[in-house]
């Protein structure tokens, strides 16, 4: 089974260096194990985030809940910068999703939960990769790393959804949000909840990487998905509070 995983995760190139092959083989074996356990306190984190970044920035207990979540899932020795980035994107997207849910009349808890978990496949993959690199003494870099994280993290999501017994109202947008950004239409068009998670993701990227995002991308996506500009304005009005919250969650 591990060899099949190596073929799945290996980049689609004619040549790949031997060190990358050894890391991918160790990673394949690591991913054959059961997914990480569902973290305790997940529902409490969702409840705190649903209340808004401004309120949560003033609640030390709620912040401790989130830090406990971070320490249980978003840790990988040797891949700390990647996990730190994923953590910040996760929190920002969850805060954005809570605002979008309120404005669009969607279930705040479910949309916030889906946004909180929207990169969880990559989180699991990054943690497993760090273990594989520690075992082999080699490090995956460049094109193999980019392809692995960009394309394969999403394929781990169904296993997590089943293992964590996520409710359909959470799992459906969690599994479908990336389809909103695909050129080819999905067999089943993403619903409003998946669209909200996708826009929360785009807005988090806009906020955290302002100098590296293309102006107008979020507006174009919102128009294509049928989301009013007023919803984007409401999210952006909270960016300052999200920044404050992130500064407390380092």
What do you see in this structure?
- The protein has one domain (2-248): Hypothetical protein af1432, CATH 1.10.3210.
- It has helices at 2-9, 18-31, 42-50, 53-56, 60-73, 80-104, 108-116, 120-136, 142-152, 157-163, 168-176, 192-208, 217-225, 229-236, 239-248.
- The longest helix is centred in the middle third of the chain and has 25 residues, at 80-104.
- The radius of gyration is 18 Å and the shape is globular.
- The N and C termini lie far apart (39 Å).
- By secondary structure, the chain is mainly alpha-helical.
- Helix 3 (42-50) packs across helix 7 and helix 11 (168-176) packs across helix 12.
- The chain is 68% helix and 0% strand.
Global shape: globular
Give the integer mean of the pLDDT values. Answer: 89
Poorly predicted ranges (pLDDT <50, ≥5 residues)? Answer: 1-7
- Main sheet record: none
Task: Quickly describe the structure.
The chain is mostly helical and 250 residues long. Helix content is 68%, strand content 0%. The protein contains 15 helices and no strands.
């Amino acid at each position: 089974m591990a060899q099949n995983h190596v073929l799945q995760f290996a980049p689609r190139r004619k040549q790949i260096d031997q060190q990358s092959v050894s890391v991918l083989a160790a990673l394949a074996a690591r991913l054959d194990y059961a997914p990480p356990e569902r973290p305790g306190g997940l529902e409490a984190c969702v409840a705190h985030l649903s209340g808004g970044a401004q309120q949560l920035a003033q609640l030390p207990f709620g912040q401790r809940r989130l830090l406990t979540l971070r320490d249980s899932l978003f840790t990988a020795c040797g891949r700390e910068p990647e996990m730190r980035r994923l953590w910040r994107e996760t929190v920002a997207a969850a805060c954005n999703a809570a605002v979008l849910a309120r404005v669009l009349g969607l279930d705040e808890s479910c949309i916030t939960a889906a946004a909180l978990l929207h990169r969880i496949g990559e989180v699991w993959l990054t943690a497993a990769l760090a273990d594989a690199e520690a075992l082999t003494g080699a490090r995956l870099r460049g094109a193999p790393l980019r392809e692995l994280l960009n394309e394969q993290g999403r394929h781990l999501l169904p296993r997590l959804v089943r293992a964590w017994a996520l409710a359909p109202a959470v799992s459906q947008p969690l599994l479908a949000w990336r389809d909103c950004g695909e050129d080819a239409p999905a067999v089943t068009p993403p619903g409003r909840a998946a669209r909200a998670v996708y826009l929360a993701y785009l807005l988090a990227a806009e906020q955290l990487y302002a100098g590296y995002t293309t102006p107008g991308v979020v507006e174009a996506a919102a128009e294509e998905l049928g989301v009013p500009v007023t919803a984007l304005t409401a999210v952006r009005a909270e960016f300052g509070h999200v920044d404050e919250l992130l500064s407390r969650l380092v």
